[in-house]
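1st attempt posting a full record on here, be nice pls
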Amino acid sequence: MITNTPPGLKSRFPLALIALSAGLIGLGPPAANAQDYIVGRTADGQPDLQGLWTNDTITPIERPASMANQAFLSRDEIASAEARIAERRAIADDNVVVESGGSIGGYNQIWLDSGDTVLSTGQTSMITDPPSGRAPIRPEAEAKRDYGFAHVEDHWTNHTVWDRCITRGVPGSMLPAGYNNAYRFIQTEDTFTIVHEMIHDVRVIHLDKTEHIDSKVKLWMGDSIAHWEDDTLVVETTNYNDRGMIANSSAGGRLKGVPISDQLHVVERFSRVSEGTILWEARVTDPVNFSAPFTISMPLTRDDEYTMYEYACHEGNYAIENILSGGRAAERSATP
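the predicted structure (as tokens):
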């Protein structure tokens, strides 16, 4: 973590991430740009985090086991990874004919927007702690995840809460997916609001609260309160119910479908390090499902040209009904 805080930054983010986001590995302008950056202010004097931000990327949430403890990619590795994804998607676009009996899938590439570059920091995974870049998932949590995916035709509770169009939760709502990877930040004197493109979630986080709601009240996205630590916005979320998941998208890898408990505790940090970059970090603690806390960190990129559209997902959607109906039909056909 940072020990000598650069002027105008005042952040707890790993120095390596801040330096790399400014181009220490030769990918951009000198690192001094990030260290010397002075955060703009809103009309009421707060550090200005407002704008439209995106996080589409091919960087995985968990580091591939083959990369062991390699925290960052070289320039050549970045170029190679981006070339491979471009080639793979070009092939997918050409293969629009499905053989008889084959799976037609969900969407072709024209409907997806999952990014075609690694994160600007060059990090090999969004998980930055533990050093392995992998979440310490308890075996029983993995078993519950696997059971749900194996029994999606049996009951609606075995589907992810995103498939059911309820929420992606916190921190899941900040993690990239196959499309709709945009966030609008809005600030007032006493609130910080995040409008999520995916699943139309809106988080209104209070800056004038110092205590959470009664512990008996459990919420899908928890109860969030926030404060400023110099120029970094720190958001603490508690009061979760135990019906959500850490990640719902396939981009989550092993984390997709891992349950949360009502003991989940998340601390997020938002630090603007340049006109076009906010570093976001989430420290996740859930002793029921993870053997230790872990940290997810990545840059968000400003994109004023991006247009957010309505996400027309609704609870009780036909997809869930059809999957369950298919399961019942399979049961009937198997009955003598």
